[in-house]
Each structure stands twice: as structure tokens, then as C-alpha cells.
Specification:
Blueprint: H1 2-7, E1 14-17, E2 32-35, H2 40-48, E3 53-55, H3 59-68, E4 72-74
Parallel strand pairs: 1-2, 3-4
Helix pairs in contact: 2-3
């Protein structure tokens, strides 16, 4: 999250975290974040309205990318240092 924030300096970055598992929210407290709430379709819509999407390979993130035409970066074992240019439109 710190790396992503540094990519967009000096803009203030906020994270919308959509997970179907409960999370220990204290690990995110150094960051400006919103944790998902509500129905999965509401979360999908919220993700589609983000400026950028960063996700593990997921059809959920893929649909948010498609619906909102939002640039997406899938994180997998091949991801190295990231840049703003790695997000696919």
C-alpha cells in the first residue's frame, strides 16, 4: 500500500478493500481506507468507480475493470516493482 501511495504522490490515496473474508483492520490503520460493506454487487459497483484497481487475479476485479473501464493491475507471483504504467486499461 505504501508503494502504491508513492506512485501517486502528491495526491492523497484512499483504498477500497473488498474481501469476502474478514480482515484484521488494524494492519491498514496507517492508510486511508474503506473496508467493504453491504451486498457483493454494491462492492462491485464501488470498485468500478475507483481510479485504479489492484488485485490478485480475480473475476470480481475483472468485472469491476470491465464495468467501470478502470485500469487494473493483477498481482501474481510474476509481479516485480510496479509503476503507474503497469495498470492495464
Amino acid at each position: 500500500m505504501e508503494k502504491v501511495e508513492s506512485l501517486f504522490t502528491p495526491k492523497k490515496v484512499g483504498f477500497f478493500i473488498a474481501s469476502d473474508e474478514e480482515q484484521d483492520l488494524s494492519i491498514f490503520e496507517k492508510h486511508n481506507f474503506f473496508f467493504r460493506s453491504g451486498h457483493p454487487l454494491e462492492n462491485l459497483y464501488s470498485l468500478s468507480k475507483c481510479d485504479y484497481l489492484l488485485s490478485v487475479p480475480s473475476s470480481f476485479a475483472g468485472w469491476a475493470h470491465f464495468i467501470g473501464e478502470t485500469p487494473l493491475l493483477n498481482l501474481d507471483e510474476h509481479v516485480r516493482e510496479i509503476s503507474r504504467h503497469d495498470f492495464k486499461s
